[in-house]
Amino acid sequence: MLINALSIEWASITTPQTRFEPHKYTVTAVISDEDAQQLISDGFRVNTNDEGEHRITAKRSVSRKIKDRQTGQEMEIQNEAPKLLDKNKEPLDANVGNGSEGQIQVKPYENRYGKFFELQAVMVTKLVEYSPDDDELQF
Predict the structure, then answer these.
(1) Phi and psi (nearest 5°) for 108?
(2) Are the beta carbons of 108 and 116 closer than 8 angstroms?
(3) Please, are residues 39 and 55 in contact by the beta-carbon 8 Å criterion?
(4) 117-128: per-residue pLDDT in tens?
(5) Could you give the domains of the chain?
(6) Of 110, 105, 137, 106, which is closest to residue 124 (Cα–Cα)?
(7) What distance in Å separates the CA atoms of residue 118 and residue 111, rounded to the nearest whole number?
(8) pTM score, two decimals?
(9) Is 38 helix (H, G, I), strand (E, B) or coil?
């Protein structure tokens, strides 16, 4: 499923956010009114702020636990990082900053808590590169 992002925010695409457990790859996208209404009617959670902007968040865990079918033993498997591509569908090595634009490829899934988006890939059509100020606190 592709989601058009009018603006990409808080992107941790190729490097996971590690501030909170469990560590995850994540991206928040500002989406159009039409896309928001469609996702809401499909049962997904869409956040709307006071200015009327609609946002969705897609995440992928760094790892997942599975049970070995033969031994019944629980194992932890590392997930691959989502793909980050430029508008020509070439791999992109950049820190995607707030205000970037593009498309987000997600895999919808449902569990007992609701419907969610697993982050698969991000294609950036307009890059605003994040470069932290050397004097800025990084934690």
Answers:
(1) -65, 145
(2) yes
(3) no
(4) 999 999 999 999
(5) 2-126 (2.40.50.140)
(6) 105
(7) 12
(8) 0.86
(9) helix
